[in-house]
Amino acid sequence: MVMWVFGYGSLVWNPGFHYDEKVLGFIKGYKRVFDLACIDHRGTPEHPARTCTLEKDEEAICWGTAFCVRGGPEEERLAMEYLERRECEYDLKTSVDFYKEDDPLNPAVTGVMVFTSTPDKVSNKYYLGPAPLEDMARQIATANGPCGNNRDYLFLLEKAMHDIGHEEEYVIELANEVRKVLAEKVTPVKESRASPVAKKSKSNVPTAHQILPHQPEAVSTTI
C-alpha cells in the first residue's frame, strides 16, 4: 500500500514524519490563503495565529511538496496519526491530483491526500475567513504559541517557496506587510546617543533568508 500527502505550508520545510519519497510539484484548482486559526502551535485561544489553508479557485495552482509513504500499513498508520495530531484544526481530507513541472497536463500521482478546511465560520470554528492585509499582518506579527511565533511560520514559508523556485506573490506581500508592522515596533534611536547595541536593533526585522526553523524535525506546525 502507498500513501501520498501534499504539503503546502510547514510540511514543505518540516514534514516531521518518516517518508520514502518527496516530490516537488503542484495541485490545480486551489490557492493558498492565511484564513485558518491555529490556537495550539503558533497561537493561543485568546490570540490565534493565522496559518495556511486552501481555497477553491478554478484558475489557480498551488505549489508544494508531495510525500510518499511506502512502508506498509504500520508506517501509514504512524504517519497518519502524527498528521492528524498536527493538523487538528483542519476538518477535511481532500483527494487531489498532483502534477510535476515537466508534465503540467497529466497527473504524476492521483488520489493524493491534502488537509483542507471548511470555509464556514459556523460549521468550522477554526475558520477565520479573509481580512484586510494590514489586519492579517498585525495578527501574524503578534501571535505566539507553544511551538513558536506566527511570523516565523510565514517567513519560513516565504523562504521555502523561494528555495523550491516558486515564490508566491501573496506570501511575499503578506510577509513584507508583517515586516512593516515589526519595524513600527522598533523605537527610533538618535544616532548621537545610540549605543552599538541600540544601532543594531534597527535591523532586527528578519528577511526570508535570515530565519531558520527552531527545531527542523520536531516543530509541530500546520500544513
UniProtKB/TrEMBL annotation:
Carries keyword Transferase? no
Q: What is its main location?
A: cytoplasm
**Location in or out of the cell:** Cytoplasm
Molecular function terms from GO: glutathione specific gamma-glutamylcyclotransferase activity
CDD domains membership: GGCT_like
What UniProt keywords apply to this chain's record, in alphabetical order?
A: Cytoplasm, Lyase
Q: Record's GO cellular component, any one? A: cytoplasm
Q: What cofactor(s) does the depicted protein rely on?
A: Mn(2+)
Read off the Gene3D superfamilies from this record: Gamma-glutamyl cyclotransferase-like
Gene Ontology biological process? glutathione catabolic process
Name the Pfam families on file.
Answer: ChaC (PF04752)
Give the protein family: Belongs to the gamma-glutamylcyclotransferase family.
The entry's protein name is Gamma-glutamylcyclotransferase 2-2
Q: Which organism is it from?
A: Raphanus sativus
